[in-house]
Design goal:
The structure is a homodimer.
Chain A: H1 22-26, H2 47-56, E1 60-61, H3 64-69, H4 76-83, E2 93-95, H5 100-113, E3 115-120, E4 139-144, E5 151-155, E6 160-164, H6 169-177, E7 181-182, H7 195-201, H8 208-211, H9 214-217, E8 218-225, E9 228-232, H10 245-248, E10 257-264, E11 266-267, E12 271-279, H11 282-295, E13 301-305, H12 307-315, E14 324-332, H13 334-350, E15 354-357, H14 358-367, H15 371-380, E16 383-393, H16 397-412, E17 417-422, E18 429-439, H17 444-461, H18 477-499
Parallel strand pairs in A: 2-4, 3-4
Antiparallel strand pairs in A: 1-2, 5-6, 6-10, 7-11, 8-9, 8-10, 12-14, 12-15, 13-14, 13-17, 16-18, 17-18
Helix pairs in contact in A: 2-5, 4-17, 11-13, 16-17
């Protein structure tokens, strides 16, 4: 299907075809309707405000292409709406600041003129993080951080690097790689998401078991707020009051615009080992992952698909396991990888695992960033496809798994495929990542919203968190209110009012 | 000297004598003046308010002994003031709540009647954390958490335990030990400090290299605030907005009273190895510690004394090293300890270390909680003795070390002993812990305040944090303002006003 880039994931050149048999598996009868030409709302901002913004930041675009490219994130709902011509989230203008001072200047002008400002990194939010509430504002601008993409400093002694927030994953790895270093942060959105976005949403990469989450990597940060700058992080850890870095991490552009990050870096690994393991059941495999997370040695990457995900993978050629497929990746110095591999193998065998060799590992590595492209192909074919995720303590995990699966199957019907894997582990718990594929109903947006609400209710009722690594955005706000309660909500509101009294920063996200 | 317990550290039975030679080393001529009988201010709270408080919490004491025992923390300034009869920080009453509901009820009554509430755990603050600003309030009460000392639950699958916040270290270890578990958190205040205090001040234990800081152990918490309860922590880690747990950790009783904590626990180690190492200089030793922190294997305990601390230790019989003494402790399963010990030895030898065997390790273990008792003996003998600490990135550490040393020596004169050790390490940086001993001037409180201010200025000017693990209290507030800036300060104030609009919670601490 000829879907323009503003309504698809990533680079058109990397689009994938639907694997054989998927149409039949899902009983898909007809492809999605053709894509409508989106009707952009007229630019609302008056000329004098645009002039004031241009005085703060020279790079201002108000053309259709720029506005459309910043009209939404990349959730399935975002894509479905764009496909049917709904681009009402498009900003009036796109500003591309050159440096921290321009960001700060834009926030001052926007405060005076009541312009909503949506910080925009890679544009890959899947929780409605780029869908601002425009009511009550003179207009909306996207603050595209793409020009702020430099390496500021490397501190080899402390193994830290200071990088601008607009840098995207591959370029950051390139800059650090020249110095023999890596961040080691590889979320599925790696090719497009920005460092600032990672920080603002508490991203978690596929190598989180070994390298930590992105919030673990953040040692210092600089942010511009409407009321002034924040420069935080004088030590890796401190007892100088609450850790305010942790208040900016996960703030989704509602408290400030992160412009610079000081991050933990590590030497580029010189050895890699990615292998597959098979477990007789999700329960047995989960216990094996738990043992690794609690007693070590901890792999760099550790994932376990449930029976359905394993079977679908096998049926579409992406795996050969029966039971449940686990991927175990180790990276580091060669002797360390060898020693850990031996320890991992001993423990996984003792927990009922059967090694499958390097082929499943290589297949996983090859396809690690491909799922969002596959989603486009599924949408083209008339399927609904989306993911959601959560995390909780190990003892609650089976209950959360069952409750969410049941909620999705009930909402979407027996024809839906509900796949799940554990993608991130901790000593005390783990995340669950669900993928849902079903034939589209007449209104697939409504179809998904109903299913997602049921799943979110199940997550919260089971005691799990509404998001392990996607964030809150607009989609998860109602459930965040339950999760943090009225006092937690009051804390977030108070911080928001203190740093952004006019409420211009990404209005409508995060805060219940 | 016969100093009553309210003006000394810990248990009188554990008091220590001054080692031989210390008087001469310091040129101490005469002992401290005799201790004055403290004049307690009259109870300010009117009878109807006391009645209302008693209705909220049955256990209320207004006797002199209870008030004196809660009159101050355990900084040298606190002790010096108590020794000279100043007990103006004494609360009007001491309340000992039985459960969370009583804590919440006390906060409601205190809000209505404008009573300042000072949450009191072990009473071991060394930064003026128990020295409330009483002006503008009807009176002050200490909320002693000592009765809330139960084990609520152990989750063996998730390796977590839920414990009441008034539990002290030894009892918590006893309760967990019955189940084969340990927290592994051993700060110098271990024998007296409470779990709630650890959380409220971001405590860091001597085994932090291997077991993490206390804030690393906190997975969930329950707190009472004047505006309602907070129940946080549905997963080890989450992307559901900013991590609000991190806002309560380090909040020093100013945002709420932590009543219950869900903590990471681990199996009790079945093997221990504590050995000493000698390094030719602090610089060489620091580089060796850095290598362990960055490349592993990481010991459980890792400390390095500078040349002066090592020499003083040797002169007073607590060590035998020339150069700089390091203590390397390993705990865990026997095979793991053996494997790590071999890796540690290889790396430390390669970095210029010489092993000293188990004797220095045993001596350190034996004396690990004794330093505060030694301080009492020094105060008795007419010496000023106090500690301060900071942390920063490895690349800044030598500059911070030099600047703080110089500031202290300049302020206290050449006769002062300024000792330092690295007590906590991270991949990106480490802490510095200074001990200062000098002959007392005519006004030792003023003498120390001047020296401490100079050291604090040097810490902040060198880019380090004003506290790595003691907290902010009242003593560090001016420097916290520089560290987090006006926007950070506004954030703290906003949260405070949101959860405690009457400002009754530990007024005067933390917030600049």
């Amino acid at each position: 299907m000829d879907v323009p880039s503003f309504a698809r994931w990533g680079d058109a050149a990397d689009a994938v075809a639907l694997p054989d048999g998927v149409r039949e598996l899902l009983g898909l009868r007809e492809p999605a309707p053709p894509v409508a030409r989106p009707a952009l709302p007229p630019v609302r901002l008056p000329a004098d405000v645009l002039d004031a913004l241009a005085a703060a930041c020279a790079d201002v675009a108000t053309g259709d292409a720029a506005r459309l490219a910043h009209a939404a994130g990349r959730s399935t709902e975002d894509l479905l709406r764009l496909r049917r011509g709904e681009a009402d989230g498009a900003p009036d203008a796109v500003l591309r600041p050159a440096d921290h001072a321009e960001v700060a200047a834009v926030l001052r002008v926007a405060t005076v003129h009541r312009v909503a400002v949506v910080p925009f990194g890679g544009g890959t939010s899947v929780v409605g993080g780029l869908r601002p509430v425009a009511g009550g504002f003179a207009g909306t601008v996207a603050l595209d951080m793409g020009r702020m993409c430099g390496l500021v400093d490397i501190d080899h002694v402390s193994r830290t690097a200071t990088l601008q927030a607009g840098l995207r994953g591959p370029r950051a790895e390139e800059l650090l790689g020249d110095a023999g270093l890596t961040l080691g942060h590889f979320p599925q959105s790696f090719q497009f998401a920005s460092l600032g976005g990672y920080a603002a949403t508490r991203s978690s990469g596929q190598a989180s078991a070994g390298n930590g989450r992105f919030d673990d990597l953040v040692l210092g940060l600089r942010a511009a707020t409407p009321t002034g700058d924040l420069d935080l992080g004088r030590a890796p850890r401190s007892a100088a009051g609450p850790d305010l870095r942790q208040l900016l991490l996960g703030s989704e552009g509602a408290f400030g615009v992160v412009t610079e990050l000081t991050l933990r870096v590590r030497p580029r690994p010189d050895a890699h080992s990615y292998v597959g393991w098979s477990f007789p059941s999700f329960e047995v495999g989960s216990a094996a992952l738990r043992a690794l997370a609690q007693d070590g040695p901890l792999p760099t990457v550790l994932r376990l698909s449930d029976e359905t995900e394993t079977a679908v993978g096998a049926a579409t050629g992406a795996g050969a396991a029966t039971g449940c497929l686990a991927i175990v990746g180790l990276e580091g110095p060669a002797d360390d990888v060898a020693a850990r591999a031996a320890g991992v193998e001993r423990l996984l065998r003792a927990h009922g695992g059967t090694p499958l060799g390097g082929e499943p590992g290589a297949a996983w590595l090859d396809g690690r960033y491909r799922a969002p492209y596959l989603r486009d192909a599924l949408l083209d074919a008339g399927a609904l496809a989306e993911t959601l995720e959560t995390a909780t303590f190990w003892s609650r995990l089976p209950g959360t798994y069952r409750a969410v699966r049941e909620a999705l199957v009930t909402a979407l019907g027996a024809g839906a495929l509900v796949l799940c894997h554990i993608s991130h582990v901790y000593a005390a718990g783990a995340s669950l990542y669900f993928t849902v594929v079903a034939p589209q109903a007449d209104d697939p947006v409504d179809q998904w919203r109903t299913a997602k609400a049921a799943a979110s209710d199940a997550i919260v009722a089971s005691g799990a968190t509404i998001s392990h690594h996607h964030g809150v955005g607009t989609d998860h706000r109602p459930w965040l209110a339950t999760e943090i309660g009225p006092v937690g909500t009051a804390m977030l509101r108070a911080v928001k009012n203190a740093v952004d009294p006019a409420g211009i920063l990404n209005p409508g996200v995060l805060i219940p």
